[in-house]
User: Which sequence fits this backbone?
């Protein structure tokens, strides 16, 4: 059974969002990290950059392939996980914790409603 | 290609049982990885890995004109071979481009086995039929092929065979032996940059050989690790780093092209190319940072486009971002700094002498 925390929202592209005092912390799910395996590089935006709902904000590279990362919300990047530069494996080891990627200040919090809840995401990955 | 049309090796069920992630490759449904590419890669560098490579094209060339035919078809010289010896060779078209790269095994002057790339099976057969008077038999789905690779390969395989493997030299083979009771051909060959063996056995008897090798400690490895291993070892992948429009001289296979006193298909073109010199060369690149320069990335020097990446990955053993690519010949010397365009970024890279990894004997 896949680990899909109840308190997060999810995109169909396997990013998660955790709301913390009005800001959104973003990462990729354990399902996605397991599927990618062997993650070797994460390309993230700089602080201050604008990101848009379901548009790429970065790239994650595994040994085999590069995959786009999709922003679950429109807004401005206020924090970036610099540790991933030298330790991209954190994404696999702790996808919902140390492996987070960016924090976004949402321009339109109602976009959250367009994301999947845990149950819907579980169904999306065939675990529901 | 639809999934339903993919061919399967006799070990398909075994791969699923081991939890392999299966992918379509050259018309076959093959294991990409079991535990993970990096773990499998490391197993081959430190211990022993086991690959199902039964999808590769396997052909017999038979009859009194076999040696003569192969001499006319292959860029390397099969007349150098003795019975029980194998040879890596490009097979070229008239223009000197590569039809495929293969390993040729000599059983007798009238009996050779050839192993080529899975994606080139039909092309190789058509070429052989068109240019050889000998009998050419497609044995791809008659002979399964397992690769046992790594510093512990001999230890893993020895308990299963009666032959003394320590006496089998690199690129030699034992034509008739049994592995785990199954009739087999065992060669000291492979494409991982490690010592190792390849075992040919009847298609429907591959399972007991596979199982016995897993029991002696070989780690199942997929195509993903096979690709990172061959790239670290500086070996090209046909279809990616070489093809019908690249010559072996450009692809860094000069050592496998024997032109002196020979007349094989493509020799004239290659002779001309050798005289004037190639304009581009396949080079090794080490990329700064962890970003991966993949196939298709443009290579620049002082802003000018000077080449293109053909293969790139993270080298799990060398722990660097590495790539192969064609570069203007005057820039192909080791130490040349270049820039590679990766998506929206331009990253620094340096031309290095191949291979990226060399086994310490």
Assistant:
């Amino acid at each position: 059974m896949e680990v899909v925390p109840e308190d997060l929202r999810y995109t169909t592209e396997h990013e998660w969002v955790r709301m913390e005092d009005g800001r959104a912390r973003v990462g990729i799910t354990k399902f996605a990290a397991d599927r990618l395996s062997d993650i070797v590089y994460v390309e993230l935006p700089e602080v201050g950059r604008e990101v848009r709902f379901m548009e790429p904000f970065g790239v994650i590279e595994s040994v085999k392939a590069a995959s786009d990362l999709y922003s679950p919300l429109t807004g401005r990047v206020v924090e970036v996980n610099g540790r991933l530069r030298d330790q991209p494996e954190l994404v696999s080891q702790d996808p919902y914790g140390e492996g987070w990627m960016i924090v976004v200040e949402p321009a339109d919090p109602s976009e959250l409603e367009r994301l999947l809840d845990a149950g819907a995401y579980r169904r999306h990955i065939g675990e529901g | 290609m639809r999934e339903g049309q993919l061919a399967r090796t006799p070990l398909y069920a075994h791969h699923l049982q081991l939890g392999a992630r299966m992918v379509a490759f050259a018309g076959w449904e093959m294991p990409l990885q079991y535990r993970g590419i990096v773990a499998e890669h490391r197993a081959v560098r430190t211990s022993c890995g086991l690959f199902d490579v039964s999808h590769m094209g396997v052909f017999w060339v038979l009859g009194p004109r076999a040696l003569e035919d192969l001499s006319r078809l292959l860029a390397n010289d099969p007349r150098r071979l003795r019975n029980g010896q194998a040879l890596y060779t490009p097979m070229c078209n008239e223009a000197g481009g590569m039809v495929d790269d293969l390993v040729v095994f000599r059983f007798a002057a009238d009996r050779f086995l050839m192993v080529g790339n899975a994606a080139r099976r039909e092309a190789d057969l058509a070429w052989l039929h068109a240019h050889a008077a000998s009998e050419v038999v497609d044995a791809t789905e008659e002979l399964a092929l397992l690769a046992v690779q790594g510093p512990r390969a001999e230890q893993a395989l020895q308990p299963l065979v009666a032959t003394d493997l320590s006496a089998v030299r690199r690129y030699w083979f034992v034509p008739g032996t049994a592995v785990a009771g199954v009739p087999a051909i065992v060669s000291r060959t492979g494409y991982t940059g490690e010592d190792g063996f390849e075992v040919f056995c009847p298609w429907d008897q591959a399972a007991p050989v596979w199982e016995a090798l897993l029991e002696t400690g070989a780690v199942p490895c997929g195509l993903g690790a096979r690709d990172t291993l061959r790239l670290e070892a500086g070996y090209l992948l046909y279809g990616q780093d070489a093809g019908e429009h690249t010559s072996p001289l450009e692809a860094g296979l000069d050592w496998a092209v024997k032109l002196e006193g020979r007349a094989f298909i493509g020799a004239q073109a290659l002779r001309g190319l050798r005289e004037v010199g190639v304009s581009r060369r396949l080079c090794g690149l080490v990329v700064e940072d962890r970003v991966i320069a993949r196939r298709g990335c443009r290579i620049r020097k002082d802003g000018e486009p000077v080449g293109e990446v053909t293969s790139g990955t993270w080298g799990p053993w060398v722990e660097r971002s590495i790539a192969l690519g064609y570069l203007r010949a005057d820039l192909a010397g080791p130490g040349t700094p270049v820039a590679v365009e990766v998506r929206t970024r331009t990253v620094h890279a340096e031309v290095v002498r191949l291979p990226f990894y060399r086994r310490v004997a």
Q: What stands out?
A: The longest strand of chain B covers residues 304-315. DSSP finds eight helices and 19 strands in chain B. Helices of chain B lie at 12-17, 37-46, 66-73, 121-131, 153-157, 206-215, 223-232, 267-276.
